[in-house]
């Protein structure tokens, strides 16, 4: 973690206070201190954490649920996300949400981070990090606040394209890294094992023929979709399909409708979120003249997954299971 010398005393004092507020006993905290410092690889660079973060601010639902799935609600100062991301009362970590402060339904800012007295911000490129506003890992470091970047969002050196490894590998890498950073490695490895087992089970039952699939996020003039580095790439492939945009070296990106028509997907997966919900998106796809002869539209083969299913999150394995079950129902041509 990057802590400037002039704020070392303040951050040390803050950690002592927040550790108490998080109900971590002095003996437990002392016992775990031998674990630190720890260094992890984050987006190709080594990042060192000198203590267990005690006041973490997360941005967006997938990132927040990575923390909650590891049982780290007591290490969170709060989370930032819009209120359009689904029913949080029915998720496995609902209690974690109940015990964690919803800091804002708008964008994350440096002022919000400082007001929350955060010692770590867990966000990502296009998931909170923003060169224009200066809310970046480097910018936070100048304020004495640490950072961890979602691996799915890592920039890959091709201008601002994102993604450096297969999406599920990114999920497992983040769980493993968070396990080390927060000294909960057994829990992290347990989750990784469970997720790999669920993915393998879904993959084993996938259809022999791989139907072509297009991920539709949003956009009418031009569609926003998923390349090979965003979670839908492997959600589709592990479920037994083939992402028609899997040749794009990016995570989330914009394409032209002509490329969708040319690739003629047999199935369209809708990303359900925002003011324009799944049903409105479905109606647009079915009424858009350019898509009238696309197989998925012509045969009404449109499947819906929620936003949190399709960004890096603990819900990715379940999304694979559900999509695989749908693809198995398709008739053999």
TrEMBL record:
Domain Fe/B12 periplasmic-binding: 55-333
UniProt-listed InterPro entries: ABC_Transporter_SBP, ABC_transptr_periplasmic_BD
Keyword Signal on entry: yes
Highest taxon of source: Bacteria
Signal peptide positions (record): 1-21
Record keywords: Signal
CDD domains, per the entry: TroA_a
Family statement: Belongs to the bacterial solute-binding protein 8 family.
Name recorded for this polypeptide: Iron complex transport system substrate-binding protein
Native organism: Kitasatospora gansuensis
């Amino acid at each position: 973690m990057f802590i400037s010398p002039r704020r070392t005393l303040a951050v040390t004092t803050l950690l002592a206070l927040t550790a108490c507020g998080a109900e971590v006993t002095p003996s437990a905290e002392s016992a775990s201190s031998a674990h630190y410092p720890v260094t992890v690889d984050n987006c190709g660079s080594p990042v060192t954490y000198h203590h267990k973060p005690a006041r973490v601010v997360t941005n967006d639902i997938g990132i927040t649920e990575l923390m909650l799935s590891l049982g780290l609600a007591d290490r969170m100062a709060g989370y930032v996300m819009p209120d359009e991301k689904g029913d949080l009362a029915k998720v496995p970590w609902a209690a974690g949400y109940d015990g964690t402060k919803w800091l804002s339904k708008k964008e994350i800012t440096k002022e919000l981070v400082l007001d929350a007295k955060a010692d770590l911000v867990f966000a990502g490129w296009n998931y909170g990090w923003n060169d224009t506003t200066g809310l970046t890992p480097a910018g936070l470091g100048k304020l004495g606040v640490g950072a961890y970047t979602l691996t799915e969002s890592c920039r890959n050196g091709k201008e601002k394209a994102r993604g450096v490894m297969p999406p599920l590998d990114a999920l497992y890498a983040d769980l493993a890294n968070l396990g080390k950073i927060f000294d909960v490695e057994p829990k992290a490895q347990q989750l990784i094992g469970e997720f790999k087992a669920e993915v393998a089970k879904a993959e084993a039952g996938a259809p022999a023929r791989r139907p072509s699939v297009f991920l539709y996020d949003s956009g009418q003039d031009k569609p926003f979709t998923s390349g090979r580095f965003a979670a839908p790439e492997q959600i589709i492939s592990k479920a037994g399909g083939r992402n028609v945009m899997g040749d794009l070296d990016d995570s989330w990106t914009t394409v032209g409708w002509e490329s969708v028509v040319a690739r003629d997907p047999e199935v369209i997966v809708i990303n359900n979120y925002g003011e324009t919900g799944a049903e409105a998106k479905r109606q647009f796809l079915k009424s858009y003249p350019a898509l009238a002869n696309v197989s998925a539209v012509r045969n009404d083969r449109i499947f819906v997954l929620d936003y949190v299913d399709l960004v890096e999150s603990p819900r990715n394995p379940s999304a694979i299971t559900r999509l695989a079950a749908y693809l198995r129902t398709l008739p053999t041509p």
